[in-house]
Amino acid sequence: MTPRMTRASRGLVLLALGVLILQRIWAGTLVWFVNPRTLALTWMAALGLIAMAGSLLGVRPVRRLAVGAGDGRHPATGLPAGRHGLHQDHSGHDHSGHDHAAAGGYYSLVVLALPLIMALLVPSKPLDGGAVANKGLNTARPLVRDAVTTLKRTEKPPEQRNILEWVRNFNYAADASVYAGQSADVTGFTYFDTRLAPGQFIVARYSISCCVADAMALGMVVQSDQAAPVGNAWIRVRGPVSLVKIGDQPMPLIKAVSVDGIGAPADPYLYP
């Protein structure tokens, strides 16, 4: 591949990446992968990729001119201007570096193209209950916004708390039993944990600080006399809260008054 082709290929890949990001933003699916707080930076990144692509595709590389005046080289091409220069060979010129440069061009092109290839081959969908088996359900790790700011309890009416806020309150309460009897009204997807008793399952959501790479699943145990919903189904659960332990970690348990199936929300994640 010639340097010009390599340059054009990189430009096309960068252009495709920028357009892909903008398309995901426009379609509203980028929030499946990143925290909405980063959307402004993502816009800037996409426009930056497109600008770099334009530079690679639209600006012709400038050839180096031979040092020294009056050497008879054409200023635009760098080639000898005389008729005999068209037939001049490169005898004595070392071409070994050209192979290394070409190989480096291929490798860099592959690295640039990998995110685009993954985006086209891997189905675009948010994390759900199927990923909990791989990432696991968080029952002990403290919830933090970043390395400095620790999240505190949320003082909201019980019915307005989401799963993240319930779990956060239980984690930071000196005595989690103070929440016993309060009414919960939460939505999430179902997950079945082998450590739970019969008639119990977990209603869970993913919490994301930056992107899906740092996503962690959080959940509340549900005790229900109704037939258990299918796994990985979105539900709304209402009922009074009590305390249960998984291992040594206290978790909120909802004694379900109602369990209703719902559609998956447009933004399925919760954010610290």
Describe this protein's structure:
The chain has 272 residues and is α+β, with helices and mostly antiparallel strands. It folds into two domains: 119 residues, no CATH class; 142 residues, Nucleic acid-binding proteins (OB fold (Dihydrolipoamide Acetyltransferase, E2P), Beta Barrel). Helices cover 32% and strands 19% of the residues. It is built from five helices and seven strands, in the order H-H-H-H-H-E-E-E-E-E-E-E. Strands 1-2-3-5-4 form a five-stranded mixed β-barrel. A hairpin with an 8-residue loop joins strand 2 and strand 3. The protein is elongated and about 70 Å long.
Largest sheet: 5 strands, mixed, barrel
Please state the second-level CATH architecture of the largest domain: Beta Barrel
Q: Which strand-content bin applies to the residues?
A: 15-25%
Helix content: 25-40%
Number of helices: 5
- The H/E string reads HHHHHEEEEEEE
CATH class of the largest domain: Mainly Beta
Order of strands across the biggest sheet? Answer: 1-2-3-5-4
What is the overall silhouette?
elongated
Oligomer: single chain
Radius of gyration over all CA atoms, rounded: 29 Å
Parts with pLDDT < 50 across at least 5 consecutive residues: 64-70, 82-90, 144-150
Tell me the name of the CATH homologous superfamily of the largest domain.
Nucleic acid-binding proteins
Total strands: 7
Count of domain modules: 2
Under CATH, the topology of the largest domain is which? OB fold (Dihydrolipoamide Acetyltransferase, E2P)
The chain-level structural class is alpha+beta
User: What is the CA–CA distance across the termini?
Assistant: 48 Å
Mean pLDDT: 79
